[in-house]
Amino acid sequence: MIASPWGFELSEVRAPVLLWHGTEDVNVPIAVGRRVAQQLPDARLRVFEGAGHAVGMANQAEVMEAIRAAGERP
């Protein structure tokens, strides 16, 4: 088994969540990323066209800037 229950529903998460997902991810299909984003009350999904599973590694500057900006959110 690759995944197991997390012990909570995504709809219960109250913290803002930033999600990055590549359209060519062969480990976790983009449909899963979109479904997760829809279930989280305060999620922002950034989709990288043509990117694979290591989307954060290939787009480090953008990802790090988004994390920095999120830290400044009221």
From TrEMBL:
Positions of the Peptidase S33 tripeptidyl aminopeptidase-like C-terminal domain: 14-61
Pfam families: Abhydrolase_4 (PF08386)
Stated name of the protein: Peptidase S33 tripeptidyl aminopeptidase-like C-terminal domain-containing protein
Organism in which the protein naturally occurs: Barrientosiimonas endolithica
